[in-house]
Amino acid sequence: MSDIEHTSTGKEARRTTPGRPWTPQEEPRQDALGRYLAAVAAAASARSAQEPEVAPGGEVPQRPVTAAPEPSAGQPAVLRVRDVMQVPAASVPGDMPFLDVAHTLAREQVSAVPVVDADDHVIGVVSESDLLAKAAVMAEPHRHGPVGRMWQRRLYEKSHGDTAATLMTFPPVTVHPAQRVTDAAWTAAHARLKRLPVTDYRGRLVGVVSRRDLLRALIRDDAEIRAEAESLIGRHLLDPHAVQVAVDNGVVTMTGRLDKAVVPELLASVRDIDDVADVVDDIEAI
What we know:
InterPro entries: BON_dom, CBS_dom, CBS_dom_sf, Diverse_CBS-Domain
Keywords: CBS domain
Organism: Streptomyces cyaneochromogenes
Structural class: alpha/beta
Strand content: 15-25%
Strand order of the largest sheet: 1-2-3
Protein name: CBS domain-containing protein
CATH architecture of the largest domain: Roll
Number of strands: 8
Number of domains: 3
CATH superfamily of the largest domain: CBS-domain
Pfam family, one: CBS
Oligomer: single chain
């Protein structure tokens, strides 16, 4: 990702950060979030470039989901949803009572679960928000004040349900196991969802993927970045031990003594490594 993308993402994060002191863990978390958003933005840009043209009737032709092609020799493998999804995935039947759904969320320690029919097709998703609305109606059956907007009225009416099927949000937003992780990340960001059911081509539940799973897949940890940087240095220099590499939250610091003629090219090559946020040049040019 380019320095421009990282800079703009960082500025946006600072604008939206609450006016309170950061904890020691906050800055690395904000940096990881910024890198995640940059990856999602790159995926969105690629998607828009590949969007099919709208037909004269106003309909956009749908592309069928097919098995992912195998990478050719010399090309890096593309991460797919199947590589990062959680299996098995917790789910609830449509006729499960409200209290049992609440117990399931608590037991599984998740914020939402897919609702499935008798054939394991995903028909919706029931979340803590749905249950919270139900609990509010149970505590105060009659609302005060005028009727709100349409979505508020729908939420209020839905919250009178007693089963997962009557409380759930539908239609569900799902992803396919063969989809790229970047596309699934775009889907999660666009729909503002923390968890996405993963379904096969018949709509049956095969797993679930969370934003945390996608984040970990999109952003490599510092150890992986350091290993690639050291490998790259080994290909550039006769003596790979002439330069030492340290990585902290995607920032690569390079120290050592080198011929000044090779320093600019080496720094540029390290800066081009995926998920490198910045390169600190502490090399003594000789």
